[in-house]
Specification:
Elements (H helix, E strand, L loop, with lengths): L17 H4 L3 H23 L3 E2 L5 E2 L13 E4 L2 E5 L4 H7 L5 E9 L15 E10 L3 H22 L1 H7 L3 H7 L5 E4 H10 L12 H8 L6 E4 L22 E6 L4 E8 L4 H10 L8 H9 L4 E7 H9 L20
Parallel strand pairs: 1-5, 7-8
Antiparallel strand pairs: 2-4, 3-4, 5-6, 6-11, 8-9, 9-10, 10-11
Helix pairs in contact: 2-4, 2-5, 2-11, 4-6, 9-10
Bound molecules: adenosine monophosphate and magnesium ion (MG).
Length: 336
């Protein structure tokens, strides 16, 4: 742990007009860095046998586990479809074709207005979405930490000019993203928050402010595992040994940057999925195509989604995630 402070956040009100944003040296450096991070992620995953698929953009249902954010409906020939808030359901389905897949997938979430100034929420963003048949939660965590260490190391080695423009020291970046990363259970994270004087409930989601506080205590990325049922989507598998605890994780960037990835072992059993849907207030009838696949047999799996703009923000040391997007959209801010 360190006594690092959270990065100063810049608010949505500061987003310049697009013509100005796209021509600043800082935006160009951040976007070149994004390009390099995506290249090295593709190389790294490809070398391990992952197949990149093109992601879905619309579907009859999408990920309901997006706390506070609204989904967007579209009219699909008289049927109500959704823009993807995340491609989780399709990731599980894709394992019927291949054992290891990834996407770089676009997501749209109508985040609440108050997120415009958090420095970490966009309305339109992208995930590096990874899914692995037969993997455990801990195996997925190893894939996630290797991926982050690899792409950050490659950026430190090869993106010196971009990092210099953005004021990020490549040596420090390489050092802080060296493996392995610490692992805290949700319970340990709650205890750490109590020591910091934050009244975190032991069986609730850790909100972004508390997470920022926790993240500011660390000088290297770390995992928080075992979030409580109720805080996450129906697809995060519940522990058989510890009912109420989910086999999931968040990967959290240090220095106040906060969550950059969430992942889990997935529920794939038809009856348990229906129960979990009901428990999370979802109507199973809406999930017809997905439950039909589950009834026939979806592969067991684990995986994660790593936010691309949040990754760039952290690697580049940017004060706000919009600085890592070519066409930033923040809650309530009308922009092209
Ligand atoms: P979630 O499904 O909410 O855990 O999202 C998966 C990952 O996507 C997160 O770990 C973030 O890196 C990224 N992410 C989620 N919501 C947003 C957002 N509103 N803006 C930017 N990135 C996001
Ligand atoms: Mg998450």
């Amino acid at each position: 742990m360190s006594d690092t402070q959270a990065p100063a956040r810049s608010t949505g009100a500061l987003v310049p007009p697009l013509g100005e944003h796209l021509t600043t040296a800082a935006t160009r450096a951040a976007l070149r860095l994004q390009n390099r991070l995506l290249h090295s992620a593709r190389d790294h995953l490809g070398a391990q046998g992952f197949v990149e698929l093109l992601p879905p953009i619309i579907g009859p249902v999408t990920d309901p586990g997006v706390r506070g954010a609204k989904q967007i409906d579209i009219d699909y020939y008289g049927h109500r479809y959704k823009l993807m808030t995340s491609a989780i359901l399709y990731k599980q389905a894709s394992l019927l074709a291949f054992d290891k897949i990834f996407y770089v997938s676009p997501n749209v979430r109508m985040e609440p207005l108050e997120t415009a100034g958090t420095g970490r929420h966009l309305v339109e963003f992208h995930q590096l979405d990874v899914e692995i048949a037969g993997a455990s939660r801990d195996e997925a965590m190893r894939v996630a930490e290797n991926l982050l260490a690899h792409v950050a190391g490659q950026a430190a080695d090869q993106a010196g000019a971009e990092l210099a423009t953005l004021g990020r020291d490549p040596g420090a970046l390489r050092k802080e993203t060296g493996l392995p990363f610490d692992r805290l259970s949700h319970r340990e994270a709650v205890e750490a928050l109590h020591r910091l004087g934050h009244p975190q409930s032991a069986d609730a989601e850790i909100g972004w402010q508390a997470e920022e506080l926790l993240s500011a205590q660390f000088d290297r990325p770390f995992f928080v595992t075992d979030y409580q049922k109720g805080s996450r989507g129906f697809y995060d598998r519940e522990s058989r040994e510890e009912p109420g605890v989910l086999r999931n994780f968040d990967l959290i960037a240090p220095g106040g940057y906060g969550e950059i990835s969430s992942g889990s072992e997935r529920e794939h059993d038809y009856a348990r999925l229906v129960t979990r849907m009901r428990e999370t207030g979802e109507n199973p009838e809406k999930y017809g195509w997905y439950l039909a696949l589950a009834r026939k047999g979806l592969p067991a799996s684990a995986g994660f989604g790593l936010g691309v703009e949040r990754l760039v923000r952290y690697v580049a040391g940017l004060s706000s995630v919009w600085q890592a997007a070519a066409y930033p959209k923040l809650a309530g801010v009308v922009s092209p």
